[in-house]
Structure formats: C-alpha cells, structure tokens
Specification:
mainly alpha, DNA polymerase, domain 1, 3 domains, 3-stranded antiparallel sheet, 10 helices, elongated
Length: 264
C-alpha cells in the first residue's frame, strides 16, 4: 500500500507507492486530497492488472533495447545474438531516438519499404520487423506500454461484376460449394487466399506485389502474416544456385574431356 509524506521545507504532498514489480515510484501534489486520490487509482490499477509505468512510454527505444537484451539473457545465445545484431544494424539506427510510446505506424511502414527497395531479402526484412514487434510486446508485458497497434484490412478476393462484395449466400451456393464438390476437396474460402499467397511466394513474387494483390493496408501486415514462408523461398533459391553451379561445373568437365580426346 502506498503512503503520503510531506518533508520539512517541501511544498506539496508526495505520494509514494511500489509498482507490481516492486519498483518505487512517487508523484507530488499541491493538495493532500489529490495525492490520496492518486494512490487509490494506482492501487486499483494494480489490482486489475492494468497498471502502466507512467515513465515507460517516454523511454527512448535505444534505452529500452538495452533492458530488453538483459531480459533476453535467458534465451539461447544464438537468439540473443540475432536480436542484438538486428537491433544494432537495422532497428535502432531508424528508431533509437523515438519514445517507445510514440513510434508512428507510417514510419514503420516506410522503414520496411526502404529495406525491401534496398534489396534486403524478404525473410530478413520480416525478421527485422519481428524484432521491433517483440521489443514492443515485451514493453507491454513489463508495463511500459498499454498496447501498440497492429492493424490492417484485407482486400476483396471475389468481387462481383460491379466490383462490389458478393453476397455470402450467392457465392457459397452458386459457386464455391459446387466447385468443392467437383474438385473433391474440403476447405474454407479464406484458405484459398492463403494458398494464393504461398504460391505467389513460391514463384518469387515481390512482397510489395503481394501487399497490393492482397489489399493489405501496409507491408507490415504482409510480412507479419506470410513472412514465415520466405525462408522456404531462400532455401529454394539456394538449391537453384547449387543446381546452376553443378551444371556449370559439369559443362567445364565435359570441355576438358573433349579437349583431351581431341589432342590424341
């Protein structure tokens, strides 16, 4: 429980209390009644689990990243090393001076777009975004933030001839159900949407193209939902390189053999 004190020579009343993690906080008021009201509110927030560190949202992201890395020490060394590298090279140069409660969503989207346009691999861009998102998620868990926004709207996949939404009953009865019956499969309409993205990624589609095709509000949404598929694409690219190198090596070997026979 908090308490109120008024030291000799000081003006006002200082309300002192401990947060849910045991850290000490204080705030000074001109009137004792205001200090008492404040303590009641803080105790109520703690009891409901909704208490937020009043200084947390104003903490620079760079300062919070240092605390985040200390908290991450329980994770594997490889994971910590990845967090540290991504924060140092990609996240903090762009957002280190921002307050953790005041990072503009459009600036995050601009950052991701800049990385894509710079030729950074989509799987790496997605990992950088995951690192920033995890940084803010842990800030919420540690009562530095109340929440952070992750929003986006899906576009229309099956519009009618006028470009408007098709009525659910019409599409289901006249198109979708008969198609499932003919194909001999069972699935939801939304499964087709995810399948189309997976096929597009397998064909090396650019993340920005997928964003436009899906009608996502930002590339953040695209990478958040489908970024896990890009590492598979990287593996496919690596396999393709291996095949090309093997073909080149085989061609060179054939030239050497033919040259040997020709010299006899």
């Amino acid at each position: 429980m908090g308490f109120i004190e008024r030291r000799p020579g000081e003006q006002g009343y200082r309300a002192r209390y401990n947060d849910p993690l045991g850290r000490k906080h204080s705030r000074t008021f001109a009137r004792k009644a205001d200090a008492q009201r404040f303590l009641v509110e803080m105790e109520g927030d703690k009891a409901r689990g909704s208490w937020i560190d009043p200084r947390g949202a104003d903490m620079p992201l760079a300062a919070w990243a240092e605390e985040f890395l200390l908290l991450a020490r329980r994770l594997s060394p490889t994971t910590v090393q990845t967090y540290r590298r991504d924060l140092t090279r990609y996240v903090l140069p762009r957002f280190g001076d921002y307050r953790i409660g005041r990072i503009p969503a459009d600036e995050v989207e601009n950052w991701l777009n800049d990385e894509v346009e710079a030729g950074i691999a989509p799987s790496s861009v997605h990992r950088h975004y995951r690192t920033l998102r995890r940084l803010l998620q842990v800030a919420v868990e540690k009562q530095h933030l109340e929440h952070f926004a992750e929003s986006g709207l899906d576009g229309l996949v099956f519009p009618n001839g006028a470009g408007k939404p098709v009525s659910s009953s019409s599409f289901w009865n006249q198109h979708f159900t008969p198609s499932l019956r003919r194909a001999g499969v069972k699935c939801r309409v939304h499964d087709l949407r995810h399948t189309s993205v997976a096929l597009a990624i397998a064909e090396s589609a650019h993340p920005k193209s997928i964003q436009a095709r899906m009608g996502h509000s930002s590339i953040n949404v695209t990478l958040d939902r489908y970024g896990h598929l890009f590492p598979e694409l990287d593996e496919a690219i690596a396999s393709a390189f291996d095949g090309r190198l093997a073909a080149v090596h085989g061609a060179r070997s054939s030239v050497v053999v033919n040259a040997s026979f020709g010299s006899e």
